[in-house]
């Protein structure tokens, strides 16, 4: 995306963007192999910002939330303040596992409060407290990351870390990932939360803990329906729809001419999703990402978890036109029936 298109996209976002992007310390979106750093960076800026909207909403923790955090040991409703896509379900069904483990060094304490995992998504909530004030300035923020089962790096389809300060000595951090494929890490996982030189404090912190997948129904559908443009340039296939406790996941295959792989011009489609009852999922109710190394061929859409399974979804893809505005691609609109479950 060129600079002008990016600026127009930012202008259309109805949130306090400067504060939002400053607080989205480590938003990550990996669409390609690492060697294609330039394109990753350009896409990351915009996708991370979109993810900021999903996770942080207004970018502030409410006064009531700050009071609640000061009086109770667990985070609980914080997921609504971070606009997590599963926040209502998490609160209603109490889906998180209490961790409450910590590590301290040089006056900074990192406490993992809660976590939730359903095979498709992982959510981890961390609280940092310091003996002196914690700095949210970019140059002093340091970095934090999560590993699973001893792996060096999680390569999710969608991933983000959002932060907010509760008071001058307390910062809350919300990690969330949608994995490249459902259940790629198994039913029981080992998690390590790492922090290095955080918020003006020097030193490394680490909290390790086991986490079990949420017990609950998981329904998988294999619609395998396809549509394509009349000129055969693009083809869209809905491979799988997975309903799990923390999300509704739609796995898509996008086909396009081979030369787009070679010259790195593969398409990025935005989506809205409508169920058979007319409920629309977009903006805060939809996240999208690409599986690493697949050059845009494998796309994942994440919607909120659902107690009632719709009869179908209609996928409505769009792309930015030459003027930077979004236009629906009617030829690729796809009805996804949910009648072939496994």
From TrEMBL:
Pfam families linked to this entry = DUF4179, DUF5643
Q: Which domain of life is it from?
A: Bacteria
Q: Where is the DUF5643 domain?
A: 223-328
Q: Which residues form the DUF4179 domain?
A: 39-126
Q: What is this protein called?
A: DUF4179 domain-containing protein
The species is Sporosarcina globispora
């Amino acid at each position: 995306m060129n600079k002008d298109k990016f600026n127009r996209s930012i202008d259309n976002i109805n949130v306090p963007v400067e504060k939002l992007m400053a607080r989205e310390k480590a938003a990550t979106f990996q669409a390609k192999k690492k060697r294609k750093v330039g394109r990753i960076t350009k896409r990351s800026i915009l996708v991370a910002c979109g993810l900021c909207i999903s996770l942080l909403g207004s970018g502030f923790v409410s006064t009531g939330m700050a009071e609640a955090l000061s009086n109770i040991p667990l985070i609980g409703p914080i997921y609504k303040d971070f606009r997590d896509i599963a926040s209502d379900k998490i609160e209603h069904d109490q889906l998180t596992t209490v961790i409450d483990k910590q590590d301290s060094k040089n006056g900074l304490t990192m406490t993992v409060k809660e976590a939730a995992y359903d095979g498709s998504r992982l959510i981890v909530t961390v609280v940092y407290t310091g003996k002196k004030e914690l700095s949210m300035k970019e140059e002093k923020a340091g970095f934090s990351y999560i590993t699973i089962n001893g792996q060096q790096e999680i390569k999710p389809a969608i991933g983000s870390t959002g932060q907010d300060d509760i008071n001058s000595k307390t910062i809350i951090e919300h990690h969330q990932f949608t994995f490249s494929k459902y259940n790629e890490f198994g039913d029981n996982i080992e998690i390590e939360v790492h922090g290095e030189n955080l918020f003006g404090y020097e030193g490394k912190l680490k909290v390790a803990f086991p986490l079990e997948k949420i017990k609950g129904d998981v329904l998988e559908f294999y619609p395998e329906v396809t549509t394509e443009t009349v000129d055969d340039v693009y083809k869209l296939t809905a491979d799988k729809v997975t309903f799990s406790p923390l999300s509704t996941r739609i796995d898509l295959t996008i086909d396009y001419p081979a030369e787009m792989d070679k010259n790195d011009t593969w398409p990025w489609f935005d989506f809205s999703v409508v169920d058979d009852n007319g409920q629309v999922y977009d903006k805060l109710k939809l996240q999208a990402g690409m599986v690493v190394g697949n050059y845009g061929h494998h796309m994942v859409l994440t919607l909120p978890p659902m107690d009632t399974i719709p009869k179908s979804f209609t996928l409505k893809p769009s792309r930015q036109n030459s003027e930077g505005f979004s236009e629906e691609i009617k030829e690729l609109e796809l009805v996804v029936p949910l009648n072939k479950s496994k």
